[in-house]
User: What shape does this take?
Amino acid sequence: MAQTGSHGPQRAEHVRQNPEQGDDRKGARSARPQGARHASEGTRHASGRGGSSRTAETRQPEAHAKNRNNVYYIPTTSKVEGITDARHGSAESRSDKAASSKAPAFLALALILVLGGGAWHLWTNRPVSVTINDKSYNVRIGSTLAEAVRDQSIHTKPGNYVSVKGDVLKAGGGDPFGATVGKKTLTGKTAQEYRVKANDKITLTAGKDVMEPHTKKVEAEAPKLVMKGGYGPIAYVRDWGTPGRVEHLTGKKSKQVADVVKSKTVDTEIYLRTPIPEGDKKLVALTFDDGPSDKYTQQYLDILKKYNAKATFFVIGIYAKDNKKLLRREIKEGHMVEIHTYSHDYEKIYKSSEAYLKDFDKTEKLILKATGVQPTFWRFPGGSTNGYMTNKMKKKICKALHKRGYLEMDWTALSGDAEGIDYSKKEMVDRAIQTIKDAEVPVVLMHDSNAKSKTPEVTEAVLKYFTKRGYQFKSLDEYYGGELTLLP
Assistant: This one.
């Protein structure tokens, strides 16, 4: 049974036969036996008459005949392998020859790469001499310092793993070491990852502590108001200070909270200054307590104006609230309005330091609202040694008010108008003159009260006496003495 292929009839010859080849073949055909030719012809004649009665056997020899182009075809269903194999054989032969010619080049290249890679490996891994802690070691060039320490089993002193407050959470859990290479100091990962080089001189140091993970909140810290000394009625800012910056750290493991000052707060410094009189000028600080009074304050202001004198009025809040116009006149004419508490009730204000300061604050607000001027002095009712206030209370009150920039002012001279004795006008004038002369820095106590009817005349007499002798009466802003508070 014939095989069926996809190639169809295969061409047996591709070149037309030349004439000599054709003649030879004619001769070969003419040499055939006559009987065979006659039989063949007879058969053709018979088939011509019979038409379709020709059999497959009679057609088969015709298939071997030439076609019109004198090319022979062999009918077959099989692939002619010879020609294909010959072609492939020729291509494979050429490929083998090319491959055989390239093989030496590939081998040479591979050998170069192997030798070059080996040489590079040897060069980049060559040992070099380094000095660590004054001892020589051979280490692989390019090794990190951590690798060199490990490979050479060099002892180090690691830091600790600590909390935000510095408590040790894990001993040895910090940086394994620090290092000094030449003159360069290395810490942390920089030290561990340093690549050693030939002839390095390295000194290992103790590793630093490592702080636990934490949250951080940054806050500004305002300067505090600090009294830095000096003496006198005039307070001025010598140094405004600068705000600081504080980090509040909260440890995620320890839960501790720590404050770290990133920039220090510089406090605002308040310094006290005492004015010094020019030349041989003599100054007297005249003060009035317990006002304003609806009877005498106007009279005092007129007397002061007559002698070009200035005074300081320590007012009581319960009287000031109803005489705000008088407060404003006092300020307008160059006098000072200061604090003598609000109630002047000894039992109430000296009950505690808190009670005193609460009463004090009411007067401060009243004066500031009425006059627009901030007070800077105060005077304890009864003075700083009054028998009602303990030393502990006095210290606490003074500390609180000093921080706010206030000075407490007692007195060094007086007329005696509030001692509970019915002195005559002359006795009061004489006493005022004598105590003023005796005081190194005279601060005179008078009272602006409806109950003190003699005091306006005493005041004028004292002013007349001293102005004739070259004295000047000033308010406390020109006072040149220290704070007049008797502290234990």
